[in-house]
Amino acid sequence: MSVKRTSRDIRTANRYEVLRQIIAESPTSRQELAAATGLSLATVATLVGELLELRMITEVGFEDSAGGRPRGLVAVNASGGALIGVDIAETYVHVELFDLALNVLARAEEDVRPGESLPGQMVSHVAATVGSVVTQAGIEGARVLGVGVSVPGQVDRATGISEYAPNWDWHDVPLLDLLTEHIAYPLYLDNPLRAGAVAELWFGAARGRGDAVVVNLGTGVGAGLILGGGLHRGVSNSAGEWGHNTIVLDGRLCRCGNHGCVETYVGAPGIMLNLRESSPGSTLLHPEDQTATIAALAQGMLRQDPVAIKVVRDTARYLGAGIADLVNLFNPEVVVLSSWVAAALGEPLLAEVREAVARHALPRPMAATEIVLSTIPTDPACLGAATFALEGALQSVGQKSGKKRTTTVKNRMAPTS
Amino acid sequence: MSVKRTSRDIRTANRYEVLRQIIAESPTSRQELAAATGLSLATVATLVGELLELRMITEVGFEDSAGGRPRGLVAVNASGGALIGVDIAETYVHVELFDLALNVLARAEEDVRPGESLPGQMVSHVAATVGSVVTQAGIEGARVLGVGVSVPGQVDRATGISEYAPNWDWHDVPLLDLLTEHIAYPLYLDNPLRAGAVAELWFGAARGRGDAVVVNLGTGVGAGLILGGGLHRGVSNSAGEWGHNTIVLDGRLCRCGNHGCVETYVGAPGIMLNLRESSPGSTLLHPEDQTATIAALAQGMLRQDPVAIKVVRDTARYLGAGIADLVNLFNPEVVVLSSWVAAALGEPLLAEVREAVARHALPRPMAATEIVLSTIPTDPACLGAATFALEGALQSVGQKSGKKRTTTVKNRMAPTS
DNA sequence: GGACTTCGTAAACCCCCTTTCCTAACCCCT
DNA sequence: AGGGGTTAGGAAAGGGGGTTTACGAAGTCC
Fold first, then answer.
1. Helices A380-395 and A192-203, interaxial angle, to 10°?
2. CATH number of residue A36's parent domain
């Protein structure tokens, strides 16, 4: 019962691991890969062979080896395929098209006007934008390996239904089916929390870590959980809803209806409230504009503005308590601060958070945990969504296909992991 | 990197699964086992064969099968081995000797007097008690498969060092080495949180669940995490320290030095404080006796005492917020309330907690989660510790030993699980 | 007693990883 | 230029594991 593990999963995990490593350090040798992954040379060689045959990587020359036969080098074949990540957020839709080295080849960003949030409108919006990035990038459609879509709220991956999207009051929208009608590429659906976590796992600070927590600081707040080297989804794919954990019983009212949720103190609106409470008339405050306020705070930190310092410190105090909870519970190797608020406030916030977490967390788990900023430059939800597509493309490779690969086209489900 | 998974792990997990199932439903057939575990009949048959050869189970007759060959039945061979669980707690040491059906064959309980908490004293204490239960049960020593020891605080399993035990101010005590000098059986060391979780995973409400949280309510408070069908340890084996999560920022002072920890509200001393705050002169309060106070509260609930009802409701309110955090974060299938406070307050507490959690948790994860009381009748830390020993005995079975098993005695490390 | 049913073992097969062996490819030195 | 020496990497063998298939075993039913 519970979770069925098969030897195939091991293969898939190893394939991921090898490709991750190649992407991270692109001209690399089989020797290096074996050392980095802990796999035997033979296994690495066969996996590299698979990836070569898929044209995801190419041989790019040789490297001297102390006196013997030179090492063959392989690198990502950037043009070996394209991945599309779609980040459907509250107020915008980002679509990015990546090559296999995860460079952005084309990008489209559109605002969602308040009245346009019906599923049907959203879907045709997204479909049009996906089409436009493909042409914009000058890619043949056949090269698109898949499209990952990040949508807020709860997503049932098996059915592709957006069970609940808080912002637009969506209930049980069969999003995957709707998208399939307009988009011919393989589709992968999940939410931004998990997308961000997978992005960090593949390309960011969680790479090579067994246990990591990716803390998402945006308008909303949440955590993506990497446990045992893979994404933790929970039984109904809704793990990681950290934003509505209580840190101040009977505290501030949250949009979820409860009081004292983490989000009400460290989400962008919460930070604005922190600012308003500590210095009501501050010029840093842009009442109706979260982005501007957070940017103003960041500016303030640069010039050592005492108001900004106080607000960041207050915020870090809440954040520290909340993250300490995560450290105590999960005992992760690394906690990654991600999303736009973390990116905007950057190092100053990080320094305060580190201190605050150290005050709240137990010494032993704390000693084992590193707290870092995300190094992902673009929208992590986009990148993560694209990563789901990459994982999907890698999922069922090299299966029983006999000699003639084209004859036995198996009808495959979207990958479950 | 990260976590290395091998096909051997699959085998071990399946072995666990099959034995768990047999213990749970003791006269059972291979057919039933295959259906329950999802394994093929052939795999079940070989696994059952292994267990038979180990004499952990025996064939116990046949069962009619609709018109065909009767099914062979197997059952736990209770006398096929003995397991010892040691629960070293703040004020007492419990030692229980189990047969393979996990019945208690012998039990010893000794109080630890305040002055006797030096590691050396504790170790000889434990060793003597272990010896006494073995003779008391009339078991030959050879049949003891192992001794599991649960000790509070942080434990490094690789080195067997008790890194930090808060109650007695132990620092980096090489407990495993000390015990090895006195106890000849295989030893397994961990803390009560994880022991309780494993006990529930094997014999309790978490059996067959992929994701479960075992909430420990005693003097201290913590959570054991079952994720992906196995125990989650975290990077330094200290995951699950839920008791010091903040639910009331700047709330009650905790012994950990922080304020507003869950433990200060729902640990036994916290509950006493809840009582004292809501009705200072209550006769339910036994100032220096946690056990008596909790028992008095339980009695009060039975006769609908309004003071008791209020205290339990207050406690459940805190507990509800804390458990809701776990539900939101982990999205588990089941939350199990365990340990002596939960056992004492039982159903009335459970009812209040369910309600409180439902108020605080997000609807979607909440809908997928069941909250139940532990059904383990004895000390869960003892049972869990014994389970570690059972897992250890099962870990490296059927390995390459050629024909003559006795010649190739491999020197094996304690299992890392 | 034969036909039918069902259980459970044995053998064949597929997947995975590792170890071992051997050839390929390069260096250096004579 | 032609051997050693050295390292890379492919091929084959080997050890785990799980599943499918085939078949004998052990009953029931007619």
1. 70
2. 1.10.10.10
Distance CA B154, CA B177 (A): 16
| B304 shares its domain with B228 | yes
Euclidean distance between CA atoms A122 and A112, whole angstroms = 8
Asked if residue A403 belongs to a domain, the reply is no
Q: Does A359 touch chain B (CB under 8 A)?
A: yes
**Looking at residue B414, what is its pLDDT?**
38
Report if residue A401 sits inside a domain.
Answer: no
Q: Which residues pair with A372 in a beta bridge?
A: A336
Distance between CA atoms of A143 and A134, rounded to whole angstroms? 10
Q: Of the candidates B228, B258, B322, which has its C-beta nearest A3's C-beta? A: B228
- What was the pLDDT predicted at A94? 93
- Chain B interface includes A233 (CB < 8 A): yes
The answer on A44 and A24 residing in a single domain is yes
Residue B165, in any domain of the structure: yes
Position B413 confidence tier, pLDDT thresholds 50, 70, 90: very low
Residue B24: list chain A partners with CB under 8 A. none
Same domain flag for B162 and B287: no
Query: Are both B249 and B347 inside the same structural domain?
Result: yes
Contact A132, A84 (CB under 8 A): no
A358 touches chain B (CB under 8 A): no
Residues B384, B359 within the same domain: no
Strand C-contacting residues in A 379-398, CB cut-off 7 angstroms: 398
A113 and A220 fall within a common domain: no
Answer left, alpha or beta for residue B412, where phi above 0 means left and psi between -120 and 50 means alpha.
beta
Task: Tell me the two tokens of residue B63.
Answer: 């069962």
Q: pLDDT tens for residues A275-308?
A: 999 888 888 888 888 899 999 999 999 999 999 9
Mean pLDDT by 10 residues, chain A (417 residues): 80 94 93 94 95 93 85 93 92 92 92 78 89 89 90 88 80 89 92 95 92 94 94 94 93 92 95 92 85 93 92 94 96 96 94 95 93 94 96 75 34 37
A12 and A37 assigned to the same domain: yes
Looking at the structure of chain A, the number of domains it has is 3
| Cα–Cα distance, B216 to B223 (Å, whole number) | 6
Select from B10, B236, B321 the Cβ nearest to the Cβ of A364. Answer: B236
* Chain B hits for A236, Cβ within 8 Å: 331, 364-365, 367-368
Helices A7-24 and A41-53: angle between axes, nearest 10 degrees: 80
Contact check, Cβ <8 Å, A238/B13: no
Cβ distance of A38 and B232 shorter than 8 Å:
no
Give the end of a domain, one of A76, A95, A129. Answer: A76
Per the CB < 8 A criterion, the answer to whether A415 and A392 are in contact is yes
Q: What are the tens digits of pLDDT across the range B75-102?
A: 999 988 999 999 998 878 999 999 999 9
The reply to whether B106 and B68 lie within a common domain is: no
**B328 — contact with chain A (CB < 8 Å)?**
yes
* pLDDT tens digits, B343-352: 999 899 999 9
- Domain assignment of residue A176, given as a range: 80-195+380-395
Nucleotides of C strand lying within 7 Å of any protein CB atom = 4-12, 14-20, 24-28
